[in-house]
Specification:
The complex is a heterodimer of chains A (354) and B (343). Chain A is built from 17 helices and 14 strands. Chain A is of the alpha/beta class and 354 residues long. In chain A, helix 9 links the parallel strand 7 and strand 8. The termini of chain B are far apart. The chains are: A alpha/beta (354), B mainly alpha (343).
């Protein structure tokens, strides 16, 4: 997913100064929050729950934006603001320049039918509908012609590997298969934006990896704008083009996932990234020396290769160095010393910063 | 009684009490008191209850107990006529429906009715066993010469059960959509359910003529409609929130959501409500025989009033058999719907 080409794509979805407070008089709480009152104080003094605090995110067209945080950080609340399943307390959400928060109920319904589809953590399939009907939900809601609708639903089911299950009911399928139906249902909507709310969190690890590969593969073809919620950093790093980290309803860091791993903004994120396998996550482009003429001696590597694959390529020789190419052009070089250093760099950086 | 007089004295209400003082004697004890033969009772052990009658003696401005019941009666009689103008035409179709069904089922040859019942049972339950049960129960009642009474009871239960479901499901849906409506309806439903079944009949007897079948029709519907309303409301409120959120996320309009998602998913609970409603209609139809509802209940009543032990017990057994029959048919229908839903 991490394309070496970091050219900025047009902004598809944009969240501006979004606040959400749960409680009977949520709007009245805004001045307190702007004055810097903490989540805990707001709860004890005013019995209101601060769920989202001044969220600003731009989501690029055709990219995967991953929103990551622990439970209670507000990530599921945030994704429900994008299609307004939850009304914001303050702030705007723009889809293609249109303010979603100002739409009337019918306009909002149209937008949900045509422009956004969603995949849920607990699948949320209709138990009394067949797999085929479930996959066709969006088009059935839009009232499209039934034969064409079911043909297209059948194609998407086939695409997610569920050919032959069309006439079953959801509770006859395993969790992984049900979520495949959920994905087929979202794809069959043919909307530009796909929202995935912890879509793979309820699945066991092997099936989860399968589903991540399926999503990557589909995204390679379809280039949808995907907003993906997860609490799993490995999953986030595997999928993200843009990573947003939430803590207590606030964005603590957002940007290129590689940069977040290399330069965590605070100890909260550092705790997150400490235990990951850095060799598998980091890409050559993030740690190489940029240079268009200085080449390595032991061959060429691609800028988007993981460090793990370079280590494997080096046969354990620490004296090797490689030319880094992106497309056909050499863009820099990398040696094994740099790679080894980058595998532990973070701890020294953070402790130096403290 | 001195006690209460002292209380009124202390409250400074003596003047207000005496204003309504009159010299008419209303009871023998009053007369005795006037004649000066009453003993003055100052023993606290024998303190009389502070009932309206006692208080009236101490202070004649306070009404007597019989004025209270008379007041309730008068209040009801006052609203009776305007209420009758509205209710009479509104409930007339109920009379027609009951009378028509009673007439039709009794006039038709017995074997056609029985065949029809069996076909109906098979249609809703799709089970040969249940259909055979219907046949054997109806056949048994025919053999012991209770066919007509049983069919009359069934006719009333069907009509009243059908109307209860027809009114109850929309009411339950409305309740599930509005919390204020639910809050106002729940005490009403509680009252309908706890009101002793005989009490239903009292205001209705005043309102309508005892010869009209809507009299017992309304009583049966009022009693039997409660479960179907309650369980429709409950069933819809219990539909999985995740599923509703998902159809919202795909922009499903409210009407489609109700008919295509909420009601189908609430169907098992609604069917349980319908089953309860029919059973309660059957229970009430026996009591309704007091106000000229025909059928097995009439025979039970005859058994009680004429001390005909056998007649009463056999008719009672017939009611039990009908209850088993209706319950098995509706349970089988419920099971079939559950199966379709979860397949």
């Amino acid at each position: 997913m991490n394309s070496p080409n970091l050219a900025i794509a047009p902004i598809k979805l944009s969240v501006k100064n979004l606040y959400k407070v749960f409680g009977p008089s949520d709007k009245a709480m805004l001045p307190h929050i702007e004055a810097g009152m903490s989540k805990g104080d707001l709860l004890t003094k005013h019995q209101h729950v601060l769920a989202l605090n001044d969220i600003n995110v731009d989501m690029q067209e055709g990219k995967i934006t991953v929103i990551m945080g622990l439970s209670g950080s507000g990530k599921s609340t945030l994704i429900r603001h994008l299609n307004r399943l939850i009304e914001p307390t303050a702030g705007e959400v723009f889809l293609d320049g249109v303010d979603v928060t100002s739409l009337s109920l019918t306009e909002l319904q149209k937008l949900r039918q045509n422009n956004m589809s969603m995949v849920f953590q607990r699948f949320a399939l209709l138990p009394h509908w067949t797999v085929l009907e479930n996959a066709a939900t969006a088009k059935l809601v839009r009232g499209e012609q039934r034969k064409a609708t079911f043909d297209s639903a059948r194609r998407w089911l086939d695409r997610v590997g569920l050919a032959g299950y069309e006439d079953r009911h959801p509770n006859q399928l395993s969790g992984g298969m049900q979520q495949r139906v959920g994905i087929a249902r979202a794809l069959c909507a043919e909307a530009d934006v796909m929202l995935l709310d912890e879509a793979f969190s309820a699945l066991d690890p092997i099936i989860r990896t399968d589903m991540q590969s399926l999503l990557s593969e589909l995204q390679g073809e379809l280039k949808k704008t995907i907003i993906f919620i997860t609490h799993d950093l490995d999953e986030a790093l595997r999928l993200a083009d843009h990573l947003v980290i939430l803590q207590d309803g606030k964005i603590v860091q957002q940007g290129d996932p590689q940069q977040i791993v290399l330069k965590p903004a605070d100890s909260y994120i550092d705790n997150f990234v400490r235990d990951i396998n850095r060799a598998r996550v980091l890409r050559v482009r993030s740690v190489m020396q940029e240079s268009s003429n200085h080449g390595g001696e032991d061959g060429e590597v691609d800028a988007s290769d993981t460090l793990e694959s370079i280590i494997a390529k080096s046969d354990g020789e620490i004296g090797r160095s490689f030319t880094v190419v992106s497309g056909d052009k050499p863009v820099g070089y990398i040696d094994m010393h740099t790679i080894l250093r980058s595998l532990v760099a973070v701890k020294t950086e953070v402790s130096a910063g403290k | 009684m001195i006690v209460f007089e002292t209380v009124f004295e202390m409250l400074g209400l003596r003047q207000w009490c005496n204003k309504a003082e009159s010299n008419e004697f209303s009871s023998v004890s009053d007369l005795m008191a006037k004649l000066g033969k009453a003993e003055i009772n100052q023993n606290f052990w024998d303190l009389p209850q502070p009932s309206l009658d006692t208080l009236n003696k101490a202070c004649s401005a306070i009404p007597r107990s019989r004025d209270f019941t008379a007041g309730v009666e008068q209040a009801f009689l006052n609203i009776k006529d305007p209420l009758k103008v509205v209710l009479d035409p509104l409930t007339q179709p109920l009379s027609w429906a009951i009378d028509g069904t009673l007439y039709a089922l009794v006039a038709l040859p017995w074997w056609i009715v029985m065949l029809g019942m069996m076909l109906f049972a098979y249609f809703v339950a799709r089970s040969v066993r249940v259909t055979l049960l219907v046949f054997s129960i109806l056949m048994f009642l025919t053999v012991i010469d209770h066919y007509e009474a049983a069919i009359q009871t069934l006719a009333i239960v069907f009509v009243c059960g059908f109307i209860s479901v027809l009114l109850g499901i929309p009411l339950g849906i409305a309740m599930s959509r509005s919390d204020p409506l639910q809050r106002t309806m729940l005490p009403v439903l509680d009252m309908l359910q706890t009101l002793p079944t005989f009490v239903y009949l009292i205001p209705l007897i005043f309102m309508f003529s005892v010869t009209e079948s809507k009299l017992y029709g309304i009583a049966i519907i009022g009693y039997a409609i409660v479960p179907v309303i309650r369980l429709t409301d409950l069933g819809i409120r219990l539909v999985d929130k995740d599923v509703l959120e998902a159809v919202d996320a795909f922009g499903m309009p409210a009407g489609q959501k109700l008919l295509g998602v909420k009601i189908p998913l609430a169907m098992p609970t609604i069917m349980a409500g319908i089953n309860q409603t029919i059973m309660m209609a059957l229970a009430m139809v026996v009591i309704a025989s007091l106000v000229s509802a025909p059928g097995l209940g009439e025979l039970v009543l005859q058994g009680i009033s004429r001390l005909e032990l056998g007649v009463g017990l056999v008719a009672g057994l017939g009611i039990v058999l009908l209850a088993i029959m209706i319950d098995r048919v509706s349970k089988a229908a419920l099971k079939r719907i559950n199966k379709v839903n979860s397949e």
